[in-house]
Amino acid sequence: MVRTFKLEASTSSDEQEDSSSSLTNKLLKTRDALEKLSLANVQVTEGEDELAAFRQQWQRELEATPSPHREPPRQQTKLEPEEPVSDEEKAKQLFLRGVELERSGKLYEAIQHYKRSMQICPDVETRLYESTDHRADTPIEELKVEEVREVEDVDSDDEMIEGEDLVTRLQRILARKGTLCQPEFTTRGGHISWLPYEVVQLVLRWAVSADLDAVTLERISATCRGLYLAAREPDIWRLLCVKTWGIECGVPRGHGFTSWRQMYIDRPRIHLHGCYISKTTYLRHGENSYQDQSYRPWYLVDYYRYLRFFPDGVVLMWTTAEEPASCVGQLKHRAAKPSLGIMPGHYRLVGDKVVIVIKKVSSEKKPAHASNTRFRSRRKETLEHHEQIFHLELELHNVRSRRNWQLSWRHYAVSSRRDQWTQFDLTPNKFPPFAFSRVRAYTAEAHAPLASHTYVHALVHTFPYTYTRTLLHV
Questions:
Q1: SS3 helix, strand, coil % of the chain, rounded to 5?
Q2: pLDDT beneath 70, residues of the chain
Q3: I need a labelling partner for 188 at 20 to 30 A (CA). Which of 25, 246, 328, 444 fits?
Q4: 206: how many CB neighbours lie within 10 A of its CB?
Q5: Domain extents for the chain?
Q6: Alpha-carbon dihedral of residues 365, 370, 374, 377, nearest 10 degrees?
Q7: Helix (H) or strand (E) holding 225
Q8: 310 and 470 in contact (C-beta within 8 Å)?
Q9: Whole-prediction pTM value?
Q10: Tell me: the pLDDT tens digits for 120-132?
Q11: Is 357 left (phi over 0), alpha (psi -120 to 50) or beta?
Q12: CATH annotation of 167-266
Protein backbone atom coordinates (compact mmCIF):
# COMPACT_ATOMS: atom_id res chain seq x y z
CA MET A 1 0.00 0.00 0.00
CA VAL A 2 2.79 2.31 0.81
CA ARG A 3 4.57 1.65 -2.46
CA THR A 4 1.46 2.17 -4.45
CA PHE A 5 0.83 5.53 -2.90
CA LYS A 6 4.34 6.62 -3.53
CA LEU A 7 4.11 5.52 -7.12
CA GLU A 8 0.91 7.37 -7.61
CA ALA A 9 2.35 10.41 -5.96
CA SER A 10 5.38 10.31 -8.14
CA THR A 11 3.19 9.83 -11.18
CA SER A 12 1.01 12.79 -10.32
CA SER A 13 4.07 14.98 -9.77
CA ASP A 14 5.43 13.95 -13.17
CA GLU A 15 2.13 14.73 -14.77
CA GLN A 16 2.08 18.14 -13.11
CA GLU A 17 5.60 18.79 -14.34
CA ASP A 18 4.62 17.74 -17.90
CA SER A 19 1.48 19.86 -17.87
CA SER A 20 3.33 22.93 -16.62
CA SER A 21 6.05 22.54 -19.22
CA SER A 22 3.50 22.09 -22.00
CA LEU A 23 1.62 25.15 -20.79
CA THR A 24 4.81 27.11 -20.81
CA ASN A 25 5.54 25.99 -24.32
CA LYS A 26 2.07 27.01 -25.42
CA LEU A 27 2.47 30.38 -23.84
CA LEU A 28 5.80 30.85 -25.54
CA LYS A 29 4.33 29.85 -28.88
CA THR A 30 1.38 32.19 -28.35
CA ARG A 31 3.72 35.06 -27.51
CA ASP A 32 5.80 34.40 -30.60
CA ALA A 33 2.68 34.31 -32.72
CA LEU A 34 1.44 37.58 -31.23
CA GLU A 35 4.78 39.20 -31.82
CA LYS A 36 4.76 38.05 -35.46
CA LEU A 37 1.17 39.30 -35.85
CA SER A 38 2.02 42.70 -34.37
CA LEU A 39 5.00 42.99 -36.70
CA ALA A 40 2.78 42.14 -39.68
CA ASN A 41 0.18 44.70 -38.56
CA VAL A 42 2.86 47.34 -38.21
CA GLN A 43 4.13 46.59 -41.72
CA VAL A 44 0.59 46.74 -43.16
CA THR A 45 -0.10 50.01 -41.39
CA GLU A 46 3.12 51.53 -42.70
CA GLY A 47 2.26 50.43 -46.27
CA GLU A 48 -1.24 51.89 -45.99
CA ASP A 49 0.16 55.16 -44.68
CA GLU A 50 2.58 55.40 -47.59
CA LEU A 51 -0.22 54.64 -50.06
CA ALA A 52 -2.50 57.25 -48.51
CA ALA A 53 0.27 59.84 -48.56
CA PHE A 54 0.93 59.08 -52.24
CA ARG A 55 -2.74 59.43 -53.06
CA GLN A 56 -2.98 62.78 -51.26
CA GLN A 57 0.10 64.12 -53.05
CA TRP A 58 -1.28 62.94 -56.40
CA GLN A 59 -4.63 64.65 -55.69
CA ARG A 60 -2.88 67.90 -54.83
CA GLU A 61 -0.88 67.79 -58.08
CA LEU A 62 -4.06 67.20 -60.10
CA GLU A 63 -5.77 70.15 -58.44
CA ALA A 64 -2.74 72.39 -59.01
CA THR A 65 -2.55 71.55 -62.75
CA PRO A 66 -6.12 71.24 -64.11
CA SER A 67 -6.72 69.61 -67.47
CA PRO A 68 -7.59 71.95 -70.40
CA HIS A 69 -10.42 69.63 -71.41
CA ARG A 70 -12.36 69.80 -68.18
CA GLU A 71 -12.53 72.13 -65.24
CA PRO A 72 -11.48 70.91 -61.74
CA PRO A 73 -14.35 69.86 -59.49
CA ARG A 74 -15.50 72.56 -57.19
CA GLN A 75 -15.85 71.79 -53.51
CA GLN A 76 -19.20 72.95 -52.33
CA THR A 77 -20.29 72.86 -48.75
CA LYS A 78 -23.77 71.83 -47.82
CA LEU A 79 -24.13 74.74 -45.46
CA GLU A 80 -23.45 77.49 -48.09
CA PRO A 81 -26.23 77.84 -50.73
CA GLU A 82 -25.28 77.99 -54.42
CA GLU A 83 -25.27 81.51 -55.84
CA PRO A 84 -27.34 81.93 -59.02
CA VAL A 85 -25.19 82.56 -62.14
CA SER A 86 -26.26 85.57 -64.21
CA ASP A 87 -26.69 85.48 -67.98
CA GLU A 88 -23.59 87.58 -68.47
CA GLU A 89 -21.42 85.23 -66.39
CA LYS A 90 -22.86 82.22 -68.17
CA ALA A 91 -22.10 83.77 -71.55
CA LYS A 92 -18.55 84.57 -70.44
CA GLN A 93 -18.01 80.99 -69.26
CA LEU A 94 -19.26 79.62 -72.58
CA PHE A 95 -17.04 82.01 -74.51
CA LEU A 96 -13.94 81.10 -72.47
CA ARG A 97 -14.79 77.42 -72.92
CA GLY A 98 -14.90 78.05 -76.67
CA VAL A 99 -11.47 79.68 -76.49
CA GLU A 100 -10.06 76.60 -74.77
CA LEU A 101 -11.60 74.31 -77.35
CA GLU A 102 -10.23 76.44 -80.18
CA ARG A 103 -6.72 76.30 -78.70
CA SER A 104 -6.95 72.52 -78.38
CA GLY A 105 -7.92 72.21 -82.07
CA LYS A 106 -11.63 71.44 -81.67
CA LEU A 107 -12.95 74.18 -83.90
CA TYR A 108 -16.47 72.83 -84.42
CA GLU A 109 -17.14 72.56 -80.67
CA ALA A 110 -15.62 76.04 -80.17
CA ILE A 111 -17.99 77.54 -82.74
CA GLN A 112 -20.94 75.97 -80.95
CA HIS A 113 -19.88 77.54 -77.66
CA TYR A 114 -19.33 80.91 -79.32
CA LYS A 115 -22.82 80.83 -80.81
CA ARG A 116 -24.46 79.91 -77.52
CA SER A 117 -22.60 82.67 -75.66
CA MET A 118 -23.54 85.29 -78.27
CA GLN A 119 -27.18 84.20 -78.17
CA ILE A 120 -27.21 84.92 -74.45
CA CYS A 121 -25.14 88.12 -74.60
CA PRO A 122 -24.36 89.53 -78.09
CA ASP A 123 -21.49 91.76 -76.86
CA VAL A 124 -19.88 89.14 -74.64
CA GLU A 125 -16.47 89.57 -76.27
CA THR A 126 -16.46 93.32 -75.64
CA ARG A 127 -17.47 92.82 -72.01
CA LEU A 128 -14.75 90.25 -71.51
CA TYR A 129 -12.19 92.61 -73.01
CA GLU A 130 -13.33 95.48 -70.80
CA SER A 131 -13.29 93.33 -67.68
CA THR A 132 -9.73 92.04 -68.31
CA ASP A 133 -8.21 95.29 -69.60
CA HIS A 134 -6.42 97.28 -66.89
CA ARG A 135 -5.64 100.93 -67.30
CA ALA A 136 -2.29 102.34 -66.48
CA ASP A 137 -1.92 103.77 -62.98
CA THR A 138 0.05 106.75 -64.27
CA PRO A 139 -2.14 109.84 -64.80
CA ILE A 140 -2.59 111.15 -68.35
CA GLU A 141 -0.97 114.45 -67.45
CA GLU A 142 2.22 112.70 -66.34
CA LEU A 143 2.29 110.60 -69.51
CA LYS A 144 1.88 113.70 -71.62
CA VAL A 145 4.71 115.52 -69.84
CA GLU A 146 7.06 112.57 -70.14
CA GLU A 147 6.31 112.00 -73.82
CA VAL A 148 6.66 115.68 -74.69
CA ARG A 149 10.03 115.78 -72.96
CA GLU A 150 11.14 112.70 -74.82
CA VAL A 151 10.16 114.21 -78.17
CA GLU A 152 11.92 117.44 -77.29
CA ASP A 153 15.08 115.52 -76.44
CA VAL A 154 14.97 113.71 -79.77
CA ASP A 155 14.52 116.96 -81.68
CA SER A 156 17.22 118.75 -79.73
CA ASP A 157 19.74 115.99 -80.40
CA ASP A 158 19.09 116.19 -84.14
CA GLU A 159 21.55 118.48 -85.83
CA MET A 160 20.46 120.89 -88.52
CA ILE A 161 22.19 120.56 -91.87
CA GLU A 162 22.74 123.76 -93.79
CA GLY A 163 20.67 123.96 -96.96
CA GLU A 164 18.43 121.01 -96.01
CA ASP A 165 14.71 121.48 -96.61
CA LEU A 166 11.98 120.43 -94.19
CA VAL A 167 10.87 117.30 -96.06
CA THR A 168 14.40 115.89 -96.26
CA ARG A 169 15.01 116.59 -92.58
CA LEU A 170 11.77 114.87 -91.52
CA GLN A 171 12.58 111.88 -93.73
CA ARG A 172 15.94 111.55 -92.03
CA ILE A 173 14.36 111.73 -88.54
CA LEU A 174 11.67 109.16 -89.33
CA ALA A 175 14.19 106.83 -90.95
CA ARG A 176 16.22 106.90 -87.73
CA LYS A 177 13.11 106.27 -85.57
CA GLY A 178 11.79 103.51 -87.84
CA THR A 179 8.09 104.42 -87.46
CA LEU A 180 5.76 106.68 -89.41
CA CYS A 181 3.99 108.05 -86.32
CA GLN A 182 3.32 107.20 -82.68
CA PRO A 183 0.25 107.62 -80.44
CA GLU A 184 0.60 110.49 -78.00
CA PHE A 185 -1.51 108.81 -75.32
CA THR A 186 -2.18 105.18 -74.46
CA THR A 187 -5.08 103.93 -76.56
CA ARG A 188 -7.39 100.99 -75.99
CA GLY A 189 -8.12 100.45 -79.67
CA GLY A 190 -6.18 100.39 -82.92
CA HIS A 191 -4.04 103.28 -84.10
CA ILE A 192 -3.22 104.48 -87.60
CA SER A 193 0.49 103.86 -86.94
CA TRP A 194 -0.21 100.12 -87.06
CA LEU A 195 -1.13 100.31 -90.76
CA PRO A 196 1.44 99.70 -93.51
CA TYR A 197 2.55 102.72 -95.51
CA GLU A 198 0.66 101.51 -98.61
CA VAL A 199 -2.61 101.35 -96.66
CA VAL A 200 -1.98 104.86 -95.28
CA GLN A 201 -1.58 106.10 -98.83
CA LEU A 202 -4.86 104.45 -99.78
CA VAL A 203 -6.58 106.16 -96.83
CA LEU A 204 -5.23 109.52 -98.00
CA ARG A 205 -6.60 108.89 -101.49
CA TRP A 206 -10.00 108.25 -99.97
CA ALA A 207 -9.64 111.50 -98.02
CA VAL A 208 -8.92 113.43 -101.23
CA SER A 209 -11.60 111.39 -103.02
CA ALA A 210 -12.75 111.76 -106.60
CA ASP A 211 -14.01 115.27 -105.74
CA LEU A 212 -10.37 116.50 -105.53
CA ASP A 213 -10.60 117.73 -101.95
CA ALA A 214 -7.02 118.90 -101.45
CA VAL A 215 -8.04 120.98 -98.40
CA THR A 216 -8.64 117.82 -96.36
CA LEU A 217 -5.25 116.46 -97.42
CA GLU A 218 -3.55 119.62 -96.16
CA ARG A 219 -5.39 119.35 -92.83
CA ILE A 220 -4.25 115.76 -92.42
CA SER A 221 -0.66 116.79 -93.10
CA ALA A 222 -0.83 119.21 -90.15
CA THR A 223 -1.40 116.31 -87.71
CA CYS A 224 2.15 114.98 -87.29
CA ARG A 225 5.47 114.58 -89.08
CA GLY A 226 4.69 111.14 -90.46
CA LEU A 227 1.40 112.15 -92.05
CA TYR A 228 3.05 115.35 -93.25
CA LEU A 229 5.46 113.26 -95.32
CA ALA A 230 2.72 110.84 -96.41
CA ALA A 231 0.60 113.77 -97.64
CA ARG A 232 3.57 115.07 -99.68
CA GLU A 233 3.71 111.91 -101.80
CA PRO A 234 4.28 113.09 -105.42
CA ASP A 235 1.92 110.49 -106.90
CA ILE A 236 -1.12 111.99 -105.09
CA TRP A 237 -0.38 115.51 -106.35
CA ARG A 238 0.34 114.26 -109.85
CA LEU A 239 -3.12 112.67 -109.99
CA LEU A 240 -4.63 115.93 -108.72
CA CYS A 241 -2.96 117.84 -111.56
CA VAL A 242 -4.06 115.30 -114.18
CA LYS A 243 -7.66 115.37 -112.93
CA THR A 244 -7.66 119.19 -112.97
CA TRP A 245 -5.99 120.03 -116.31
CA GLY A 246 -6.22 116.76 -118.19
CA ILE A 247 -3.66 114.27 -119.38
CA GLU A 248 -1.87 116.98 -121.34
CA CYS A 249 -1.14 119.10 -118.28
CA GLY A 250 2.59 118.68 -118.81
CA VAL A 251 5.29 118.36 -116.16
CA PRO A 252 6.11 120.80 -113.36
CA ARG A 253 9.48 121.86 -114.81
CA GLY A 254 7.84 122.70 -118.11
CA HIS A 255 5.68 125.32 -116.37
CA GLY A 256 8.40 126.62 -114.05
CA PHE A 257 7.47 124.69 -110.91
CA THR A 258 9.64 122.49 -108.73
CA SER A 259 7.05 119.85 -107.77
CA TRP A 260 3.57 118.61 -108.57
CA ARG A 261 2.25 120.13 -105.36
CA GLN A 262 3.57 123.59 -106.18
CA MET A 263 2.11 123.28 -109.66
CA TYR A 264 -1.32 122.42 -108.25
CA ILE A 265 -1.25 125.30 -105.74
CA ASP A 266 0.18 128.10 -107.90
CA ARG A 267 -1.39 127.34 -111.27
CA PRO A 268 -4.85 128.87 -111.94
CA ARG A 269 -7.64 126.40 -111.24
CA ILE A 270 -11.26 126.19 -110.06
CA HIS A 271 -12.11 125.51 -106.43
CA LEU A 272 -14.35 122.47 -106.11
CA HIS A 273 -15.05 122.32 -102.36
CA GLY A 274 -17.66 125.11 -102.45
CA CYS A 275 -19.49 127.40 -104.87
CA TYR A 276 -18.99 130.84 -106.40
CA ILE A 277 -21.66 133.41 -105.44
CA SER A 278 -22.45 136.76 -107.05
CA LYS A 279 -24.89 139.19 -105.44
CA THR A 280 -26.60 141.77 -107.65
CA THR A 281 -28.43 144.77 -106.21
CA TYR A 282 -30.41 147.39 -108.14
CA LEU A 283 -33.15 149.98 -107.60
CA ARG A 284 -36.55 149.72 -109.23
CA HIS A 285 -39.06 152.56 -109.50
CA GLY A 286 -42.57 151.98 -108.27
CA GLU A 287 -45.87 153.45 -109.44
CA ASN A 288 -47.17 156.80 -108.25
CA SER A 289 -49.73 156.84 -105.50
CA TYR A 290 -53.37 157.73 -106.40
CA GLN A 291 -53.71 160.08 -103.47
CA ASP A 292 -50.34 161.79 -103.79
CA GLN A 293 -49.02 161.99 -107.34
CA SER A 294 -45.75 163.51 -106.16
CA TYR A 295 -44.89 160.38 -104.14
CA ARG A 296 -43.06 157.66 -106.09
CA PRO A 297 -41.65 154.65 -104.20
CA TRP A 298 -38.30 153.01 -104.79
CA TYR A 299 -37.58 149.29 -104.34
CA LEU A 300 -34.20 147.75 -103.51
CA VAL A 301 -33.98 144.36 -105.26
CA ASP A 302 -31.36 141.71 -104.40
CA TYR A 303 -30.77 138.43 -106.22
CA TYR A 304 -27.94 135.91 -106.42
CA ARG A 305 -26.14 133.91 -109.07
CA TYR A 306 -24.58 130.60 -108.04
CA LEU A 307 -21.95 128.55 -109.90
CA ARG A 308 -21.01 125.06 -108.69
CA PHE A 309 -18.19 123.24 -110.51
CA PHE A 310 -17.51 119.49 -110.54
CA PRO A 311 -14.25 117.67 -111.43
CA ASP A 312 -15.70 115.98 -114.53
CA GLY A 313 -16.46 119.29 -116.29
CA VAL A 314 -20.09 119.69 -115.18
CA VAL A 315 -21.28 123.06 -113.88
CA LEU A 316 -24.58 124.14 -112.30
CA MET A 317 -25.88 127.71 -112.61
CA TRP A 318 -28.76 129.09 -110.58
CA THR A 319 -30.23 132.58 -110.48
CA THR A 320 -32.56 133.15 -107.54
CA ALA A 321 -33.51 135.66 -104.86
CA GLU A 322 -33.01 133.12 -102.04
CA GLU A 323 -30.21 133.53 -99.50
CA PRO A 324 -27.07 131.33 -99.81
CA ALA A 325 -27.81 129.48 -96.56
CA SER A 326 -30.89 127.88 -98.12
CA CYS A 327 -29.51 127.46 -101.65
CA VAL A 328 -26.04 125.92 -101.47
CA GLY A 329 -27.46 122.59 -100.30
CA GLN A 330 -29.48 122.29 -103.52
CA LEU A 331 -26.23 122.33 -105.54
CA LYS A 332 -24.59 119.37 -103.81
CA HIS A 333 -25.34 116.77 -106.50
CA ARG A 334 -24.92 116.83 -110.26
CA ALA A 335 -28.57 116.01 -110.88
CA ALA A 336 -30.08 119.44 -111.52
CA LYS A 337 -33.62 120.34 -110.49
CA PRO A 338 -35.29 122.17 -113.40
CA SER A 339 -38.29 122.94 -111.21
CA LEU A 340 -36.10 125.24 -109.10
CA GLY A 341 -34.50 126.88 -112.10
CA ILE A 342 -31.08 125.18 -111.80
CA MET A 343 -29.44 124.88 -115.22
CA PRO A 344 -26.72 122.28 -115.93
CA GLY A 345 -23.89 122.88 -118.35
CA HIS A 346 -20.22 122.23 -119.08
CA TYR A 347 -17.07 124.24 -118.49
CA ARG A 348 -13.46 124.19 -119.59
CA LEU A 349 -10.41 125.83 -118.04
CA VAL A 350 -8.05 127.50 -120.52
CA GLY A 351 -5.22 129.22 -118.69
CA ASP A 352 -6.90 131.61 -116.27
CA LYS A 353 -10.11 131.73 -118.35
CA VAL A 354 -13.20 129.66 -117.57
CA VAL A 355 -15.53 129.07 -120.54
CA ILE A 356 -19.06 127.91 -119.66
CA VAL A 357 -21.80 126.74 -122.01
CA ILE A 358 -25.31 126.17 -120.59
CA LYS A 359 -28.31 124.97 -122.52
CA LYS A 360 -31.80 125.59 -121.21
CA VAL A 361 -34.84 123.90 -122.74
CA SER A 362 -38.28 125.24 -121.81
CA SER A 363 -41.58 123.73 -122.94
CA GLU A 364 -44.82 125.57 -123.64
CA LYS A 365 -48.23 124.14 -124.43
CA LYS A 366 -49.58 125.20 -127.79
CA PRO A 367 -53.21 124.39 -128.72
CA ALA A 368 -53.73 122.51 -131.98
CA HIS A 369 -55.88 124.27 -134.63
CA ALA A 370 -58.32 122.09 -136.56
CA SER A 371 -60.30 123.18 -139.55
CA ASN A 372 -63.14 120.75 -138.85
CA THR A 373 -65.13 121.59 -135.72
CA ARG A 374 -66.67 118.13 -135.67
CA PHE A 375 -63.58 116.62 -134.01
CA ARG A 376 -62.93 119.55 -131.71
CA SER A 377 -63.10 117.35 -128.58
CA ARG A 378 -60.33 115.10 -129.92
CA ARG A 379 -57.88 117.90 -130.42
CA LYS A 380 -54.76 117.68 -128.27
CA GLU A 381 -52.39 120.35 -127.12
CA THR A 382 -48.84 120.07 -128.44
CA LEU A 383 -45.65 120.98 -126.58
CA GLU A 384 -43.43 123.55 -128.17
CA HIS A 385 -39.81 123.46 -127.03
CA HIS A 386 -37.77 126.63 -126.74
CA GLU A 387 -34.04 126.31 -126.46
CA GLN A 388 -31.73 128.89 -124.95
CA ILE A 389 -27.94 128.74 -124.93
CA PHE A 390 -25.89 130.77 -122.44
CA HIS A 391 -22.26 131.44 -123.18
CA LEU A 392 -20.16 132.76 -120.29
CA GLU A 393 -16.50 133.62 -120.15
CA LEU A 394 -14.99 134.33 -116.73
CA GLU A 395 -11.49 135.09 -115.49
CA LEU A 396 -9.81 133.84 -112.29
CA HIS A 397 -8.28 136.34 -109.85
CA ASN A 398 -6.48 136.15 -106.52
CA VAL A 399 -7.87 138.11 -103.59
CA ARG A 400 -5.04 139.02 -101.20
CA SER A 401 -3.54 135.72 -100.04
CA ARG A 402 -6.46 133.65 -101.37
CA ARG A 403 -5.70 132.08 -104.72
CA ASN A 404 -8.40 131.71 -107.40
CA TRP A 405 -10.96 133.25 -105.06
CA GLN A 406 -12.79 135.45 -107.56
CA LEU A 407 -14.37 135.09 -111.01
CA SER A 408 -14.88 138.27 -112.99
CA TRP A 409 -17.04 138.64 -116.12
CA ARG A 410 -15.39 138.88 -119.53
CA HIS A 411 -18.15 137.85 -121.93
CA TYR A 412 -21.84 137.00 -121.64
CA ALA A 413 -24.16 136.15 -124.53
CA VAL A 414 -27.51 134.39 -124.92
CA SER A 415 -28.94 132.72 -128.00
CA SER A 416 -32.71 132.20 -128.22
CA ARG A 417 -32.76 131.32 -131.91
CA ARG A 418 -30.29 129.73 -134.23
CA ASP A 419 -27.26 131.92 -135.02
CA GLN A 420 -28.81 134.90 -133.24
CA TRP A 421 -26.84 136.01 -130.21
CA THR A 422 -27.57 138.77 -127.75
CA GLN A 423 -24.58 140.20 -125.92
CA PHE A 424 -24.83 142.01 -122.61
CA ASP A 425 -23.01 145.11 -121.53
CA LEU A 426 -20.95 143.89 -118.55
CA THR A 427 -21.12 146.81 -116.16
CA PRO A 428 -19.87 146.27 -112.58
CA ASN A 429 -23.27 147.21 -111.12
CA LYS A 430 -25.28 144.69 -113.13
CA PHE A 431 -22.65 141.92 -113.27
CA PRO A 432 -20.55 141.96 -110.10
CA PRO A 433 -17.79 139.31 -109.80
CA PHE A 434 -18.30 135.90 -108.22
CA ALA A 435 -16.71 135.28 -104.81
CA PHE A 436 -15.86 131.76 -103.61
CA SER A 437 -17.50 130.34 -100.49
CA ARG A 438 -16.55 127.02 -98.98
CA VAL A 439 -19.36 124.53 -98.25
CA ARG A 440 -18.44 121.75 -95.83
CA ALA A 441 -21.33 119.53 -96.91
CA TYR A 442 -19.82 119.13 -100.40
CA THR A 443 -16.78 117.23 -99.07
CA ALA A 444 -18.30 115.46 -96.05
CA GLU A 445 -18.47 112.12 -97.87
CA ALA A 446 -16.44 110.31 -100.51
CA HIS A 447 -17.88 107.66 -102.80
CA ALA A 448 -14.67 106.89 -104.71
CA PRO A 449 -10.94 107.41 -104.05
CA LEU A 450 -8.52 109.55 -106.01
CA ALA A 451 -7.15 107.27 -108.71
CA SER A 452 -6.52 107.03 -112.42
CA HIS A 453 -9.09 105.39 -114.67
CA THR A 454 -7.09 102.14 -114.67
CA TYR A 455 -7.25 101.58 -110.92
CA VAL A 456 -10.65 103.03 -110.02
CA HIS A 457 -12.47 99.73 -110.44
CA ALA A 458 -9.98 97.79 -108.28
CA LEU A 459 -9.94 100.40 -105.51
CA VAL A 460 -13.72 100.64 -105.31
CA HIS A 461 -13.96 96.88 -104.85
CA THR A 462 -11.20 97.01 -102.22
CA PHE A 463 -13.14 99.61 -100.16
CA PRO A 464 -16.83 99.21 -101.12
CA TYR A 465 -18.11 101.60 -98.44
CA THR A 466 -18.55 105.34 -98.13
CA TYR A 467 -15.61 106.95 -96.41
CA THR A 468 -16.44 109.82 -94.06
CA ARG A 469 -13.99 112.45 -92.95
CA THR A 470 -15.41 112.47 -89.42
CA LEU A 471 -13.31 109.37 -88.75
CA LEU A 472 -10.19 111.48 -89.29
CA HIS A 473 -11.53 114.34 -87.12
CA VAL A 474 -10.56 117.02 -89.63
A1: 45, 20, 35
A2: 1-24, 26-27, 34-48, 65-84, 133-160, 163, 289-293, 362-385, 452-474
A3: 444
A4: 24
A5: 87-129, 167-266, 274-287+295-363+385-438
A6: -10
A7: helix 225-231
A8: no
A9: 0.58
A10: 888 888 888 887 7
A11: beta
A12: 1.20.1280
